[in-house]
Specification:
The complex is a heterodimer of chains A (194) and B (121). The radius of gyration of chain A is 17 Å and the shape is globular. Chain A is mostly helical and 194 residues long. The longest helix of chain A is centred in the last third of the chain and has 34 residues. Chain B is of the alpha+beta class. Chain B has a 4-stranded antiparallel sheet with strand order 2-1-7-6. A 3-stranded antiparallel sheet of chain B has the order 3-4-5. Classes of the chains: A mainly alpha (194), B alpha+beta (121). At the A-B interface, helix 4, helix 5 and helix 6 of A face helix 1, helix 2, strand 6 and strand 7 of B.
Chain lengths: 194, 121
């Protein structure tokens, strides 16, 4: 435990707030006829993706959990279960893809796969809740929608990386004061640059 | 990390191809359609949509409450007491395979062909 830990907690908290804010604005979008029922663009995944790729697995999981908590407060237990099951699977996918498959896959690919994992988690949960596999009827439509939103969030993510990295530096610049140079810090070494 | 590469293209193409295949295989014009109202995994009502002439309402015992209506060969969630109303926004179901889900009420409405070989679970 050093001073750095506090800054990491603060950064994670700010990212949680940003993820929740994005979820909130997303919920304001009215249901559109061409969208599968209940489908959302998943913009808060921008934040989870940054956390999974640049901070660490636990930070990304915390953000996912906070998002589910927000869903529980605003939309109830079912929404929270859907949010968490989807979020958990997609966060796991993001983390491992960005850690081990960086060479082979692009940001769009990670974003699309994580969107599909999000759908898969939610479909499994909906089957469990309703006690029937009829909900799988939505799988193909959700897959197409997931590809489209995955590409869009992937591109937005690429644009946002500098801003998110800057925000991260703002919190973790204290690393320099607590010893070690900027590049030497273990946790700061992982970034999208280079 | 690059934005987009060959692998990404392959992934996207595969997923879209798989989804397209499902859409093609699902396309059937099976007449005599039956809608199942499923609450908590059990079929509580099977509605033959062709036999319904006047508007018929179904009010399964669920919490939150939902009202399912059948009319003119269509069936739909007319009302729901939940917050997001995803089931109501799903709209009217009329084709084989069409499904509307209300997760909070654990209620599913799904249309199948009436034929005997219809897949049950």
């Amino acid at each position: 435990m050093n001073k750095n830990t506090n800054y990491r907690i603060a950064l994670t908290a700010v990212l949680c707030a940003q993820a929740v804010a994005l979820s909130f604005f997303e919920n304001l979008i009215p249901p559109l006829p061409f969208m599968p029922p209940g489908a959302k663009p998943g913009f808060s995944n921008l934040i989870t993706m940054f956390a999974a790729g640049s901070l660490g697995f636990s930070q990304a999981l915390i953000i996912t959990a906070v998002k589910s908590g927000f869903a529980f407060i605003t939309r109830g237990a079912t929404a929270a279960a859907m949010s968490f099951s989807g979020g958990l699977l997609s966060t796991i996918a993001m983390y491992f893809l960005m850690k081990y498959a960086k060479k082979y896959i692009g940001i769009v690919g990670v974003s699309v796969i994580s969107a599909l994992c999000h759908n898969a988690g939610q479909l499994i949960t909906s089957c469990i809740i309703t006690g029937t596999s009829k909900t799988l009827y939505y799988a193909p439509a959700l897959a197409v929608f997931g590809v489209v939103t995955g590409i869009i969030t992937g591109v937005i993510f690429r644009i946002l990386i500098p801003a998110l990295e800057k925000q991260k530096k703002y919190f973790l610049k204290s690393d320099i004061q607590t010893g070690g140079d900027e590049n030497g810090q273990g946790n700061q070494g992982r970034s999208y640059r280079g | 990390m690059k934005l987009f590469g060959k692998t990404d293209f392959i992934i996207i193409a595969l997923v879209l191809a798989a989804a397209g295949l499902f859409f093609v295989l699902n396309g059937s014009d099976d007449k005599a359609l039956t809608a199942d109202i499923i609450v908590d995994g059990e079929i509580i009502e099977s509605v033959n949509l062709d036999e319904i002439t006047d508007k018929t309402e179904f009010r399964p015992e669920t919490a939150p409450r939902v009202v399912i209506s059948a009319e003119n060969g269509e069936i739909f969630f007319e009302e729901a007491e939940c917050k997001d109303k995803i089931c109501v926004h799903t709209g009217k179901l009329s084709r084989k395979g069409d499904t509307a889900v209300c997760l909070p009420a654990k209620t599913v409405v799904s249309i199948r062909g009436s034929s005997v070989d219809a897949v049950t679970y």
